[in-house]
Structures are given as structure tokens and as C-alpha cells.
Amino acid sequence: MKVAVLSSGGKDSSAAIWWAQCKGWEVTHLVTMLVEGSDSWMFQIPGTELVKHQAELCGCEWLPVKTEGVAEHEVDDLRNALEKLNIDGIVSGALRSDYQKTRLERMSEELGIKSFTPLWHQSSKMHMDGLISNNFKVMITGVSCDGLSKEWLGQVLDEESLNRLSMLAAKYRFHVDGEGGEYETLVIAGPHMKGEITLPYVKHWDGIRGHLTFESTITH
């Protein structure tokens, strides 16, 4: 079974990569949508160019796909890229977005391949606990909700920090898995990768929300 994984570099798509590897499938490509517009209905925007380093450590090719992020047209951009690949399916880390899941399924049917969403409707707690217990190093790269301060930028989650995040999520009523856009992540190491990405970064904070920019990337 040859599959491509739709990857933004974050925790959900990284878990999807590992799932495919555990199935014994050949992950031939990490496919990343590079949104050149200011917004997207389907895909994450910040930090996606770093997926090329994850692909190197996963032993597969990186396929960047440029899109303006226009509703419906961005799926066409993805379809045009995938139809050139020799794959049996596409795997994504969709958790609860019906908008994303249904469009990926429709696109896959048109291409004659299968769409897999192994995380679909997994509980927030189970998903986050599973990442930590399986040694995924999940770095928070952006925050945009009440309760998450500048100090969370660059935080690599572990059992202690996940407990703090869970308490804040309960207090401020946000999704602990960030599914509502409360925070963005980048996975710098995990069971799906042979090695770790070292990331010098700069914090940007406006008093309410913030994000990281990366000065350079070294893999080892």
C-alpha cells in the first residue's frame, strides 16, 4: 500500500504519518499545502515550509503545493498535485472538521484512491495523552486565545505542561487539542522520524496573541 500524507508539520498530521507507518504502508510523500493568501478553509498556514525537514527524517519525499487558499479551489490544487503520484491513498490528520473530511473523500473518489482519517472523532484527551506517551515532541508555535500567554511559545509539551494546558483549557473554555485554532504546533521529533529538528526561533507577541518565526533549521 503506497500512501501520501497530507502534512502541515503539526501534531495531528504527524500522528497520521505514524499511523500509516504502523500499518506497514509505504509513505511515499508528505504533501504540504503552501497557502499564499491570508486565509484557508482547509489548511494550516504558519510554519508549513518546515515539513521538508520532517520528510527527510521520515525517509520520504516532500511535495509542496502552492494555493491561494480560495474556498473549493484549494482542493482543486491538491487534486492536481495528487493525480501525478503513484499512490493508493491519502492520509490526513483531520479530527473534527466535516468540511475537510468530506472534501478529501470526494476528491479521493474522483482520483480513484482511498482517503484515510485515522484520528477522526478521537477524544481530545486521548489524542493528546497518546502523543506524549508515544514520545512525540510537540512544540507550540502560535497561540491565539485567552489563557495562553507568551510563555507558551516554543514550549515542547510533556506530561507536566500538558496537565497545565488541560487546566487552562478547562478554565478558559478552549479545546485542549487546539482544534478550534487556539494554538498551532510543529512536531520536532517522534516515533515516525529518525532524528530531531533543531529550531532557533524568535517570539512575536502583540499582547494578545503570538507566533514564532524560525531563523534557520538544522536536522540531526
3D structure, described in words:
The protein contains six helices and eleven strands. Residues 39-43 have low confidence and may be disordered. The strands form three sheets. Strands 3-2-1-4-5 form a five-stranded parallel β-sheet, with helices on both faces. It is globular, with a radius of gyration of 17 Å. The protein is α/β, with parallel strands linked by helices and 220 residues long.
SSE blueprint and pairings:
Blueprint: E1 2-6, H1 11-22, E2 26-35, H2 51-58, E3 61-67, H3 73-82, E4 89-91, H4 98-111, E5 114-116, H5 124-133, E6 137-143, H6 159-172, E7 183-189, E8 197-198, E9 201-205, E10 210-214, E11 218-219
Parallel strand pairs: 1-2, 1-4, 2-3, 4-5
Antiparallel strand pairs: 6-7, 6-10, 8-11, 9-10
Please give a quick description of this structure:
The protein is of the alpha/beta class. The protein contains six helices and eleven strands.
